[in-house]
């Protein structure tokens, strides 16, 4: 089963509705959620929908008032981080949509569609934050800065190579590599930025922005978890992909992303008082271990504990427990979270 994956025909009535494989399977193209190959995917889909939110629900007035009281360094880092995170999310929407064309199982297609939609919301939320704080001319400048920054380019490169390889040559091997890099993007790369916003929040600064960031984080954790499940299924169904080289690729790629995230943190957070960079490095390793375990692999770094428990306070697990808007303590009635949504901490 080497060779290029074919774009799947929309409808194949001669095949069953329940797919015989996540890729290269037989599937009619019709989705009945009650008749799917991996029933747990229905729960995954429901959890993603339960997370539904949109930027306009959050009133930015308090942050607008506080913005002028931030130091110039805080403002600069705020804007750099915002546009850099927006740049990452911009890659995710089209990539998730593209993967849908090659995955045979319709339940996975549906989940990729929801993830693509959520990435679009994330993208919008960064623009929404910016539009309430700075004029368009400055936004344009900041987005250009994010495109040109050599450290940002360097860290995006490993993601882009894998994503472009799959675009040019959609093979199972490239799909596997794309999925691993997607875990890096969603499960490692956002966290220096998140740490900065939560650091402001614990000083009671820019809480509306942090509320949005916490929703994005909750989505990203769920995406990274789903992609890890997807990789495990892909490797189990296609043993020719389950090679020592590919397992090595996982360890190598995630470790590389960890180093790049540390480098970015040292650069972007160096003048922010109150964030201990050594602690942050431990936090990224802690996150990476979590990703390895979700993939069914061993911890790669020593130390299983979260060295930045104050980030955990803002984490999705915590918000799911409170079942309310974490920062505003306002019930979000449409978020129906159940125990089964729990994030697999292992
Ligand atoms: Zn996102
Ligand atoms: Zn995502």
UniProtKB/TrEMBL annotation:
Cofactor(s) of this protein: Fe cation
InterPro entries: Ferritin-like_SF, RNR-like, RNR_small, RNR_small_fam
GTP-binding among keywords: no
Entry note: cofactor: Binds 2 iron ions per subunit.
Keywords, comma-separated and alphabetical: Deoxyribonucleotide synthesis, Iron, Metal-binding, Oxidoreductase
GO annotation terms (biological process): deoxyribonucleotide biosynthetic process
EC number: 1.17.4.1
GO molecular function: metal ion binding; ribonucleoside-diphosphate reductase activity, thioredoxin disulfide as acceptor
Binding locations of Fe cation 1: 89, 119, 122
Location of the active site: 126
Keyword hit for Transport: no
Catalytic activity entry: a 2'-deoxyribonucleoside 5'-diphosphate + [thioredoxin]-disulfide + H2O = a ribonucleoside 5'-diphosphate + [thioredoxin]-dithiol
Domain of life, per lineage: Bacteria
Family: Belongs to the ribonucleoside diphosphate reductase small chain family.
Subunit and interaction comment: Tetramer of two alpha and two beta subunits.
UniProt name for this protein: Ribonucleoside-diphosphate reductase subunit beta
Species in which this protein is naturally found: Robertmurraya siralis
């Amino acid at each position: 089963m080497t060779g290029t994956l074919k774009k799947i025909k929309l409808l194949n009535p001669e095949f069953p509705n329940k797919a015989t494989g996540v890729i290269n399977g037989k599937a009619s193209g019709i989705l009945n959620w009650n008749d799917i190959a991996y029933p747990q995917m229905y729960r995954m889909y429901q959890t993603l929908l339960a997370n539904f939110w949109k930027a306009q629900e959050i009133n930015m007035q308090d942050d607008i008032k506080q913005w002028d009281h931030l130091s110039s360094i805080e403002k600069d880092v705020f804007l750099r981080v915002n546009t850099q995170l927006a740049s990452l999310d911009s890659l995710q929407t089209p990539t998730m949509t593209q993967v849908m064309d090659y995955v045979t199982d319709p339940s996975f297609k549906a989940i990729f569609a929801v993830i693509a939609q959520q990435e679009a919301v994330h993208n919008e939320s960064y623009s929404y934050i910016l539009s309430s704080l700075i004029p368009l001319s400055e936004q344009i400048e900041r987005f250009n800065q994010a495109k040109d920054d050599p450290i940002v380019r360097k860290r995006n490169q490993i993601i882009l190579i894998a994503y472009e390889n799959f675009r040019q040559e959609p093979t199972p091997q490239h799909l596997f590599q794309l999925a691993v890099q997607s875990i890096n993007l969603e499960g490692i790369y956002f966290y220096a930025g998140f740490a900065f916003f939560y650091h402001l929040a614990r000083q009671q600064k820019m809480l509306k922005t942090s509320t949005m960031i916490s929703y994005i984080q909750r989505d990203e954790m769920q995406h990274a978890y789903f992609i890890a499940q997807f990789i495990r299924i892909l490797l189990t169904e296609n043993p020719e992909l389950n090679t020592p080289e590919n397992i090595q690729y996982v360890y190598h790629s995630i470790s590389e992303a960890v180093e790049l995230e540390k480098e970015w943190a040292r650069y972007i957070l160096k003048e922010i008082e109150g964030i201990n960079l050594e602690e942050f490095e431990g936090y990224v390793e802690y996150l990476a271990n979590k990703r390895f375990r979700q993939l069914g692999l061993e911890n790669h770094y020593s130390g299983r504990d979260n060295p930045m428990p104050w980030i955990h306070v803002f984490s999705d697990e915590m918000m799911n427990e409170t079942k309310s808007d974490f920062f505003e303590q306002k019930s979000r009635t449409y978020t129906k979270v159940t125990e089964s949504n729990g994030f697999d901490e292992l």
